[in-house]
Amino acid sequence: MPNDLPIRKIIHVDMDAFYASVEQMDDPELKGKPLAVGGSSKRGVVSAASYEARKFGVKSAMSGVKARILCPELIFVKPRFDRYHEISRIIRKIFFDYTDLVEPLSLDEAYLDVTENKKGNPSATLIAKDIRNRIFKDVGLTASAGISINKFVAKVASDYNKPNGQKTVTPEEVLGFLEALDIRKFYGVGKVTAERMYQLGIFTGKDLKSKSLEYLDEHFGKSGRYYYHVVRGVHNSEVKPNRTRKSLAAERTFNENLSSEIFMLEKLDHIAEEVSRRLKNSKVTGKTVTLKIKYSDFTLQTRSKTLSYYISDKSMVLETAKGLLYQDSLSNSVRLLGISLSNLNTETTKEPEQKTVSVQLKFDF
């Protein structure tokens, strides 16, 4: 590794099929069966799939109809987000037993910086194993982990031995690990980008590394610089324990398209109530209300209004959303409505500027 890069001991912990695993844990009759959390109707979408369901090709963000075709025996259950939040809080408490540098990405994954840790353990590998054992003992669920010198490599590594496994990539192994990696495994390379890379003859990290910065900038714009650096093991982002929330939202997809604004107002009432609940749970307020409208032809429209004061109360959120609904006529029947609040009061505090330091330490990974 280059000597001028900050070397840290980073663990990325990722729960295994979290929502589905919680449902199987709470209902023993579901264990070992193909399970999908989400809606099974023609408008329903799979939020999470158990590993038994994944064997049939069922995955998150897939329509319930397609999932049922792939796996006729698939069992659908409604999501219970209060329960998932409850379990997530227990897991995060375990993380804080080891370090205060915990950056949650979602309910089921987080980065931990254990370069210096509360256990005084020099081995990030052993810490990750201990954390996974604690989660299984205290919660009853399995987790996977990736351990390396930065967040990018750790996240990629956490997917390497899933489920219920872990992968350590030491400083000496980083470049070889990334060169041999299928480009689809690179965090930040989606399906569309991967197809574009294939067309350019980029199939592995080694292929990506052979391209110049100018070449990647030309073909991938601003992302080109990111790809150029991460394939060389360069990713200086620190674990940020206090990530600033930029927005908070809720939305609903309807079983039938709505053409009457009266019915839409009824739906907006429920959505505004959910947004208000999330705002209060997160103890935040916001000034900018955005109404999201997806029409039956899948075109998307957003309408926003910025107030001169912060709000979190349902009545204020709903009143502003109503005004946005009536702002212009609707161009078609509606299949989805959403409300988001941004310009939050959490954005007043600036994050400290990251500094790159030169370190030459021999780490016990």
From TrEMBL:
Pfam families noted in UniProt: IMS, IMS_C, IMS_HHH
EC assignment: 2.7.7.7
InterPro entries in the record: DNA/RNA_pol_sf, DNA_pol_Y-fam_lit_finger_sf, DNA_pol_Y-fam_little_finger, DNA_polymerase-Y, DNApol_IV, PolY_HhH_motif, Rev_trsase/Diguanyl_cyclase, UmuC
Residues annotated as domain UmuC: 10-190
Alphabetical keyword list: Cytoplasm, DNA damage, DNA repair, DNA replication, DNA-binding, DNA-directed DNA polymerase, Magnesium, Metal-binding, Mutator protein, Nucleotidyltransferase, Transferase
Binding locations of Mg(2+): D14, D108
Metal-binding listed as a keyword: yes
GO MF term (any one): DNA-directed DNA polymerase activity
Cellular compartments annotated: Cytoplasm
Catalysis: reaction(s): DNA(n) + a 2'-deoxyribonucleoside 5'-triphosphate = DNA(n+1) + diphosphate
CDD domains documented for this protein: PolY_Pol_IV_kappa
Subunit structure: Monomer.
Functional description taken from the UniProt entry: Poorly processive, error-prone DNA polymerase involved in untargeted mutagenesis. Copies undamaged DNA at stalled replication forks, which arise in vivo from mismatched or misaligned primer ends. These misaligned primers can be extended by PolIV. Exhibits no 3'-5' exonuclease (proofreading) activity. May be involved in translesional synthesis, in conjunction with the beta clamp from PolIII.
Protein name: DNA polymerase IV
Gene name per UniProt: dinB
